[in-house]
Design brief:
alpha/beta, eight-stranded mixed sheet, 8 strands, globular
Length: 413
Amino acid sequence: MSNNKDIIALFNYGGGMRGLIPAHFMAKIEDVTGLRMVDMVDIFTGPSTGAILNAALNVPHPDHPDRPKYRARHMVKFYEREGLNIFPQDRFREFRALIHDFNNRTMKINQLNALFKKGHYDPAHLGHSLSALFGDTKLSDSLQSLIIPVYNIDGEQLEVVEEAGETGETPVHTQNNFADRGGHAVWLKNMKMELRKRPAPDVSLFDAIQASTAAPTYFPCHHFQVKYNDERNTHEYSGIDGSIFDNPCISYHGAIRQHIPEGRNLKMIMLGTGHTLRSIKKEDWNNYGGLGVVDPVNDLPLINILFHASETALMESFGEEMGKNLYVFNKSMVLDINNLNTPNTQIDDASPENLARLKVFFEEMLEDNKKQFDDVCHLLVSNRDRKEDDKREQGTSLGKILRHYISRGEKRA
């Protein structure tokens, strides 16, 4: 269980509407413990729909800024209420994308570009839902340490944006960076650990999350500005889904480990949205051809592989390194694909029927991991108790210091 050297990190996976699964998990944890996730978790990380969950649970209450505005059960309602607004049912979306691609390769008729809209969902619907959820809250306002991964596709935007009044100055470029002119991963972080190396950048949760959820083929990239409070100054990013590169192993090595103070012990909880990577027979792969490996009809095999490849390469060694400090809740959605209760693996199925299947999937996953779930609840409560003890101890120490100086002042008088 938790001790005074433990730091608890929570990783929520991406997966669009499948984010309802970790939302149910966290609602169950809060129901069992009687506490909120921000009371018990030190670091929240994860991409895309996981970033929505993490950020929302860290939004301060407007009337009680030291308390969270949302419980996990509110996020269950968020997916149930906003799902069809974000992903309106549209059986012709992929067809329009196909026509758009065909037009780009052959006819190049501008009217077709406008008509077929590249097959994206309208990002305004997602933006409206996120705006209602986050308002004008900034990353620096998060109650606990929060990490939001975004992939910046536009290396040209690594120039510093000139502030008002700074006319005639040459923009500064990042130096000695192999990724100066290419796409690269971006960690937007507000770290509240003892060894905090840099202050949180000035960016709204709305912009950070809109970018981290811009799933390729579903939404266009999200262009936004981040002002860093150090030598990096201000950057513009054209962001797409953080799931492009992020997984628990990469989050640990790329964004978390350097912030863990010496002598502290990291424990990580991973809440999955269902394993969706299918095996592919060699005959099928060879028959796909150049376009078939990215065809939605074939379930986008190459894209799915690229999304999962780095985690499959790292997970075994990561699990060995973490040992008993790693708690994983996930299961396959593709082993029993003919089961009527199996949810749709696609991220945009917000139908009431699929929402019900996602809840059943969560309940099955919970039943499969009942012992581990109980252990995690005990771990989280112990971590909250440890933090409360630390606060009381700090308050007592501060009181002693104040009494000491008051006493010295009275003696001098």
